[in-house]
Amino acid sequence: MELNRLTIIEARAKLDSGEISARQLTEACLNQIAATNERLNAVLTLCTETARLEADEADKRLKNGERRPLLGIPYLCKDNIMTKGIRTTAASKILENYTAPYDATVILKLKEAGAILLGKTNLDEFAHGASTENSAYGPTKNPWDLSRVPGGSSGGSAAAVAADLCIFALGSDTGGSIRYPSAFCGVIGYKSAYGAVSRSGLLSMTSSTDVIGPITKTVADAVLVYNEIAGLDELDATTYPGNRLVEFKSDVKGLKIGLPKEYFVDGLDPEIKAAINQVKNELEKAGAIFSEVSLPYTEYGIPVYYIITPSEVSSNLARFDGIAWGFKAEEANDLQEFYKKSRGQGFGPEAKRRIMLGTFALSAGYFDAYYKKAQAVRTLICQDFSQAFSEFDLLLTPTSPHPAFKIGEISNDPLAMYLEDIYVTGASLAGLPAISLPAGLADREGKKLPIAGQLIAPRGSENKLFSAASVWGDKIKINKNNFI
Amino acid sequence: MLSKEQIKHIATLARLELSEAEELKYSQELSHILNYIDKLNQVNTEDVLITSQIGGLVNSWREDEVRSWNRAEVELALAQGELTGGQVKVKRVL
């Protein structure tokens, strides 16, 4: 077996027994990147030299008898997370030549854990999008069908894990950006609870919903990565100490799982509906108890999200003024003109669209009608979830309304792209932990495409979420047939 | 529908230079998106507290103490702007 196809747990056993070295594992991943990235465009920056040094260092630690879950495991990281001394672009032209001066907290933790950074992955510019088509460096392709999108915004990370360019990857999820591409690429994507993982060093998008989380090949692997990156960090005042080491066993016996009826309406692909039903049947056989639940404010999730997100984006991207770093326009006579030219030329179309929308929603005369209204409806969406969780341990939903779409198919219709987030914004707006898992394969034009479902848990119930997800992962597997 | 004047005003507030074509495009697209968002007016939010944070934390305090930042990191951060005599150079304001 090619080493790059291993899961963390499989690689762990081989590293610990001395059967393979971290250097061999790293070379296998670097080879796969070299062989496939021209077609996939999943990796924007490769750290070959530092990865080899880190691998040799991990081998020394292993030789000295050190044992840690991620010691010697190579990974890729979404390019909106700061990596010291390494180019960090957020897939934007405005940061094309930007070198991160410090490490994000998650990167520091992974360094200490002995994981090996292979490079940085493609995304929609500043994580604005659901397809990775908004990257200033070209779209990432879906490894299941190169004419299709990998989903977004963590499309590079999801495609890379699916095509075994790495053993795991980091993504960020603001309104579905880990779960949705994981669904399109047939991998596991975990959106941590808001505040469980430090955001220090994550390029701010929507500060009230941004989270970092793992994209992996198995549920057990997601738990290992989560345990290493989660926890209190004084550089992010929204972090909290609890729930780091989730107690996780493959078990759903007696768990009450709700099926939100508003998530199974028209517009959901019948094959996905059937696949989720299959998941339900399997979990039921394993002892879970299902019934329908109502989240009446579901339909307002997208309009709320697309006021709150652009508002926070317009504020967070105000720091890109072209002065201390980033793209600078030539030929500006005064400061005002310099700002306008640098930003006008540096930001791509979707970033500009969101800055405009958010600036409008926050401007005098419109703030109450849009921003405050959205934050009030958000309260009702949060209450929907708390009410559901007074009766249920978990919720089961689809992750996306359909399998991966073609590159260019909806990129000219911004509202249609926003509506893709329909099943994933709810958990983001309420800050809940949620995981996307493959539920089966659909046939499209002679190609197999993954379809997926999502489990959502209340804050503090990560153990139940992972326990149920693990049963799901054991019962329903998709064959990757080494497509690339 | 957002007028061209409104779009120009928003672009100025946002410090974005837009071409004529972009002004037209964003006025159409933003209007289309806002029409959809107006759906929020169907919801009665009288007496509903607005969400200010979702993390469940009330106050998160720490000591306000000065700590030294790694010098190499500071230098790498500053070196990405245009420097004059160790200071970041800014465009003239007046």
Percentage of residues assigned to helices of chain B: 25-40%
CATH class of chain A: Alpha Beta
Q: Name the average pLDDT of chain B.
A: 91
Please tell me the CATH architecture of chain A by its name. Alpha-Beta Complex
Q: How many domains make up the 3D coordinates of chain A? A: 1
* CATH topology name of the domain at 4-42 in chain B: Histone, subunit A
The helix-strand sequence of chain B is HHHEE
In short:
By secondary structure, chain A is of the alpha/beta class. Chain A is built from 15 helices and 11 strands. In chain A, 39% of the residues lie in helices and 14% in strands.
Q: What does this 3D model show about the protein?
A:
The complex is a heterodimer of chains A (484) and B (94). By secondary structure, chain A is α/β, with parallel strands linked by helices. Chain A has one domain (1-484): Amidase signature (AS) enzymes (Alpha-Beta Complex). In chain A, 39% of the residues lie in helices and 14% in strands. In chain A, helix 5 packs parallel to helix 6 and helix 9 (301-316) packs across helix 11 (349-362). Chain A is globular and about 65 Å long. Chain B has helices at 4-13, 20-37, 71-78, and strands at 83-84, 87-88. The two termini of chain B are 36 Å apart. The model of chain B has no long low-confidence stretch (mean pLDDT 91). Chains A and B meet through helix 9, helix 10, helix 11, helix 12 and helix 13 of A and helix 1, helix 2 and helix 3 of B.
